Amino acid sequence: MAQVLLIEDDVAQRMIASFALRKAGHQVREAADGEQGLAAVRESPPEVVVCDVMMPGISGYEVVAALRADPGLVNLPVILLTAMSDREHMRQGMTSGADDYLTKPYRPNELCDAIAAVLARRQAQQKAFIDSMSGMVENALEEQKETLGRQYESRLQREINARWKRSVAPGADVRYEHAFVLLADLLGSTLQQDPNALAERLKHAQQSALDTFYLFGALHVLPYGGKVIAVFAGDAAMPTPVELRVLRAAVTLARAAPPERPVTLGLHAGPIAIVTVNDGLHGDHGQAPVPGETMNLVSALEETAAASGWRIAVSRAVAAAFAETAAFGRRSVTAGGEPAIEVVGLVP
User: Which residues, if any, are the signal sequence (predicted)?
Assistant: First the structure.
């Protein structure tokens, strides 16, 4: 069982949640608002924080941001509770750095299940990290890597918060004179299988790619059949250069794919336009990239990666931009004769 800090300003809600958690065997401490909660965490960090969103003074989002900005607390699991169930608030809850998000009213067992899930996920992440370390050199670098990891996650969280605070006018056509365009094939050569299973697999793969790309600051993420297009451009609100963000996004997505179903990615930099088509009858709108040289080349690079057994293929221009940050592998040419260069990872 876990040591849980419950931050909830509503007395009745706090009493119900506390009773359910104690009944499940957890050790529970309580705080009546965000300021008291942060003070309690810093005085004696729990194993998991359960925090209401709408509170007087410091909101639940601000509590999460404060924890993610603290190198000593950046990995502390947080579950947010709120009565707001629309997608905008759910996305805000998850992009703020929360590990899970429950809407009120919730059943007591749902809260207990959420705590068990986030703890199991953290334990699995820690085990995977430890298992990945082997040999004397890795052991010597473990402490330094952990410190740098906390610093990176803290800085990345601030970048994400800055991105989501900006307002973007919906439904507008946009053009970038120079942007990094990444095309990811999420399913590869699809074997015959149940259509429902394939649809669920595609949905899961696209959601994973969407989360990864937005995490690293993509300005647009568009479905492209079984593939996904992500557009990255310079962003003054994010101190991390766009070249490093797009490279990390590509490597992260490629490494996350299972060996039996690798993701293949093509990456090129150049001009691109995105148009919005509005449905006046139903009030919907969708976006699509305009065909052109950039889209043609990024498609050819992804096809070259798939045919060559690579994970990531980049153009010569992108390879030059990644000269100091990427580790390169083999070289080839696309069907159109353009150079294609394999990226195998980040420079240590």
Answer: none
Q: What is the DSSP string of 122-155?
A: HHHHHHHHHHH--HHHHHHHHHHHHHHHHHHHHH
Q: What is the C-alpha separation between 157 and 123, in angstroms, rounded? A: 21
Tens digits of residue pLDDT in 285-322 = 577 888 899 999 999 999 999 999 999 999 999 999 99
Side chain identity, residue 173: D
Domain presence at residue 32: yes
Q: Name the β-bridge partners of 183.
A: 229, 266
Say yes or no: 222 and 126 in one domain. Answer: no
Q: Do 101 and 203 belong to one domain?
A: no
**Length reported for the chain:** 348
Q: Which pTM does this prediction carry?
A: 0.50
Residue 246 in contact with residue 229, Cβ under 8 Å?
A: no
CA dihedral sign, ordered 17, 21, 23, 29: negative
Same domain for 276 and 326, yes or no, is yes
User: Does an H or E element contain 277, and which?
Assistant: strand 264-279
Give the domain range for residue 26. Answer: 3-130
Question: What is the number of helices (H) and of strands (E) in the chain?
Answer: 10, 13
Q: What is the pLDDT of residue 92?
A: 59
Q: Which of 199, 238, 202 is nearest to 217 (CA)?
A: 238
